[in-house]
Amino acid sequence: MTAAVVRTGLLRELIEAVGEAHVLVDPDLTASYETDWTGRFSGAARCVVRPADTAQVVAVVRACAAAGQPLVTQGGNTGLVGGGVPAGGEVVLSLRRLSTLGPVDLRSGQVTAGAGVPLAQLQKHVRAAGMDFGVDLAARDSATVGGLVATNAGGIRVLRYGSMRSQLLGAEAVLADGSVISRLGGLLKDGTGYDLVSLLAGSEGTLGVLTALRLRVVPRLPAGCVALLAMQSTQAAVDLLPVLRERLPHLAAAELFYESGLALVRKHAGLPAPFSEPVPVYLLLECLDRTDPTDDLLAVVAEADGLIDARVASDAASQRALWAYREAHTESINAEGVPVKLDVSVPVADLPGLVDALPVAVAEVAHEARTILFGHVNEGNVHVNVLDAVAEHEQVTEVVLRAVAALGGSISSEHGVGRAKANWLHLTRSEPEIAAMRAVKLALDPRGLLNPGVLFA
Ligand code: 2HG
Ligand code: ZN
């Protein structure tokens, strides 16, 4: 720490709040907090503060409020919309040290987790108690529970258990003035006024700092089966959904990807081709149950219209091998270059049309661009990753999000709005809706100190 830095009053107060070792100002130490996972968003932090508990978060928020100092809250820094890194000059409030895990309460089917607990650690903890957690996603080792709630993350099990908000039964949060809301009792019924906990889910750090979460756990389903289907078209994959819903009550995931993404996954993760020939569409299905669901899944696969080929895996290692084709997409794309990432959803009937239209629309505004699509088919959720187009990111964002809005879709399905899409919020939220959201923001954070520039431009 330099003498010039020590002189300012705020830094002295932050050091008093969390200890000198946890106020980082050395650029070598702050760097990993200042750039997002994709490498697209970055800004210099005034400093990085690492509180150990809620009382320390309160002290940090109070000190920043007194100094009029903006804050950016950060969990595992796996966000994809620039919502957890500074734009320049903010204090980064890293919550990774809030890593307490309470006992799994089997009577209520609930657990309390600190905001900084990584998803994989929560899963391990809950599974050790014979239960499971309803949300899973590829960034599980780093993504923290607080960040997942703040962005209302979805992932690969939404069709079975819903998004993060659906797992949330209570929360503790520090508001912009340093006051604390604590609703961790896990009441399943509570009709006393506004649902503040639910409001904080998906608020992207703009309304308060989530410090602990009360979460639902789900039964552990030990018997699984995974199938990778080579399909003739996206339409054929979408047309299969009613059959899956009717005949596979144990369906836990339905994921879509294409040759363009698979080629990058094979190149960067070194995986063999899943089938003898490239095919138009890959559909990955997973069933989870108490007893082996393989026969049911096989029967559905055998009769699927539009099927070219299929691989079915019942043992854990072969299941992981099939999942790798889907889960390695994000890292493989980033290994190729910094992508423009747009996470969108449309009514599922419109998904095939969107998938056909997007690469054409993107090519018109970014001639060298490579558009890679993949996603969660049941929710009509497509991850649009555009490589070689960072210079044209505005135009690319504009054409993609307008196409989605024209179909009545959402410009942010599960990653949040962040800084990346704040300028386009009006495309799928009406003026009265945005006015209501701004009114809430103004009431809870009148000086705009929490995650400025996130959600609202
Ligand atoms: C996924 O589904 C994540 O794997 C990341 O939501 C998507 O990298 C992406 O665009
Ligand atoms: Zn996703």
Which labels suit this protein?
457 residues, alpha+beta, seven-stranded antiparallel β-sheet, four-stranded mixed β-sheet, 17 strands, 36% helix, globular, disordered N terminus, binds (2R)-2-hydroxypentanedioic acid, binds zinc ion
Kindly describe this structure.
By secondary structure, the protein is α+β, with helices and mostly antiparallel strands. Helix content is 36%, strand content 20%. It is built from 18 helices and 17 strands. The protein has helices spanning 3-7, 9-18, 27-34, 54-67, 119-128, 145-150, 158-161, 164-167, 196-200, 234-239, 241-247, 259-269, 294-303, 316-327, 329-336, 351-365, 393-406, 431-444, and strands spanning 23-24, 47-49, 71-74, 91-94, 110-114, 131-132, 168-174, 180-183, 209-216, 218-219, 223-231, 251-257, 281-289, 307-313, 340-345, 370-376, 381-387. The chain has a 7-stranded antiparallel β-sheet, sandwiched between helices. Strands 1-2-4-3 form a 4-stranded mixed β-sheet, with helices on both faces. Strands 5-9-7-8 form a 4-stranded antiparallel β-sheet. A hairpin with a 4-residue loop joins strand 16 (370-376) and strand 17 (381-387). Helix 2 packs antiparallel against helix 4 (54-67) and helix 16 runs antiparallel to helix 17. 49% of the residues are buried. Mean pLDDT is 97; it is low at 1-7. Bound molecules: (2R)-2-hydroxypentanedioic acid and zinc ion (ZN).
